[in-house]
Write the structure tokens for this entry.
Amino acid sequence: MLIRRHSSGYNFIGDTETGVTLRWGATSEQDPVLAPWPELADISISNHCSKNCDFCYRDSKPDNSFMSLADYESVLDSLTSPQWGSVFQVALGGGEPLEHPEFIEIIQRTWERGIVANFTTNGRGVTKELAAEIAGKVGAVALSASSIDDIQPERVKILVDAGIKTNIHYILDSNSIEQAAEILEGRYNYMLADVNAVIFLTFKPRGRGTEAGCLTPGAALDRFVSRIDSTACCAHIGFDACFVPILMRQTKVNVDYVDSCECAFFSIYIDEQRNVKPCSFATGNRDSFNLQQYSMEEIWTQHFSVYRKGLLDSPCSEDCQHSSSCHGKCAYFESLAFCYQ
């Protein structure tokens, strides 16, 4: 199914079967600044998790804090506009989504609405029975890892054998950066042969994560970045928006195919209490608006305008040829501004 949105200065086409999306402005050479409606929603369906990872930015605990199925459907209702239709895709997380007692039904309800569902998991709940239930109803599944030792080949195989696109979300921090360079050098291809892509996620000093885990300029980061343009990894590689500034500044990446931070411009975050924020890493309540008090249209078109204005009015001042394409440093974490340090 194709989802199409066209307005002055913004055009979007998304194919729910392949996951391919196209976005352009008034002409194909122009990039739109803002979508009139979110393209993607990052939804936390719980903050319950029994694994207790030390890098967990949400400080998730086994406390049974689940979003109810009724609330989830209410969230999907709020993400459906009379003018623009439904959000194109959702990224389900937590907490550990597979520990949600109604996870299968959540996937089913999302699929029935023609919305692409993706989710990230620690992998412990991946079984052949689960894979059979969700096959054909999800876009991709990501297994999180802070080390190559966290990758579970047997879980990858279960998903791949069911025809489910499987990625690795690799936490890129001060401890893993050297091993990440080895991944790009192809050293672990024997473990990644069935993986679609390794997505490197920049560590955030939030929740149980501390400043000690943050990336810093130096030989280890330089080694990793130097491998990006000539990767020998057998899987595709990708990066979260927080790493985009350094990609633009220090690699040969084609900026026409890379998005700077999309939070509140093309995507949003909704937690298990139905609080809507620019992204899951937003700190404090300054940019938080609850769906029980405000409509999604109010939040997207009015309340987030303050956040957007703050970013657009304070562009990166560094001498960089791509500064006009980049939203600059993170609005919430000064420690993530390692692009030009």
The longest strand covers residues 166-172. The chain has a mean pLDDT of 92. Residues 108 and 137 are 7 Å apart (CA to CA). The first helix runs from residue 69 to 78.
